[in-house]
Amino acid sequence: MLQFNIKGDNIEVTPAIRDHIEKKVEKIERYFPEGTNAHAMVYLKAINNSQSKVEITIPMKNLTLRAEERHDELYAAVDLIVGKLERQIRKYKTKVNRKFRDREPMGQAFANYENEVNGDVEDDTEEDFTIVRTKQFDLKPMDEEEAVLQMNMLGHNFFVFTDAETNDTNIVYKRKDGSYGLIETSSS
User: How many helices (H) and strands (E) does the chain have?
Assistant: First the structure.
């Protein structure tokens, strides 16, 4: 069952907007394993009074769904973002089912690691290394392919994970040329 937290920036979240979002986003519940409870965080923003930006993040126990859309019409942006979420779920469900046929269901296959670095680095002679945001998450064992899939699904350019074979903490990242890199760590 989805619960909603809808916030607006430069836009009032009217009952009609809330109803439209809830009705549309609830359609993706059919892809969740039975009994799944999830919290959908919806962020609406009006940009220059001409465009709307909609962000939806649905963190679950071992999977995070996230999509973002900009459009001239708020309702159209919501419709488009729900389509993105459905395609994302179907894409990863297909890959997971292929890889984990005899294992746990889709909602358990990937770990939820939200790694974001927000903040600007100032170009001063005196360096300031102020941490502006801290996040905590549990590392779940997976292989490099699963880590790349999760990184792409979250829309990030790097992803920290525990290697299922070695139990070491590793990092996959997207390179400027579009290929992927792997940083392997070891305890010494």
Answer: 4, 8
* Residues of each domain in the chain carrying CATH 3.30.160.100: 2-99
Domain with CATH 3.30.505.50 in the chain: 113-183
> CA–CA separation, 161 vs 140, rounded Å?
7
Angle, helices 15-25 vs 74-99, to 10°: value is 20
What pLDDT is attached to residue 97? 66
Q: Give residue 88's identity as a one-letter amino acid code.
A: Q
Q: Determine how many CB atoms are found less than 10 A away from the CB of residue 185.
A: 12
10-residue mean pLDDT profile of the chain (188 residues): values are 85 89 87 77 81 86 80 89 86 68 44 30 46 78 89 87 89 90 80
Dist CA 79 CA 98 (whole Å): 29
CATH class of 2-99: alpha beta
Pairwise CA distance, residues 172 & 159, whole Å: 5
The rounded distance, in Å, linking the Cα atoms of 65 and 106 is: 12
Q: Which fold has domain 113-183?
A: SHC Adaptor Protein (3.30.505)
Closest CA to 138 of 62, 57, 40, 39: 62
Tally of CB atoms within 10 A around 27: 13
